Amino acid sequence: MAAHCEITVVDSTAQITEIVDLLLQIQTDPPSIYIDLVGVSLSRHGSISIVTLMVDTRNPRKHIWLLDICTLGALAFDTPGKGDKTIRNILESPEIPEVFFDGIENVQLMENASRDSKHRMGGSRGPVSRKFLHGLAKCIESDLRLSFKEKAAWKLAKDKGEKLFRPERGDTYEVFNTRPLSADIIAYCAGDVRFLPELWYRYWHGLTWDWQNKVKDGAKKRVWESQSADYMPNGSHKALALAGGRGQEYSGARI
Question: What is the mean pLDDT of residues 99-119?
Answer without folding.
Answer: 77
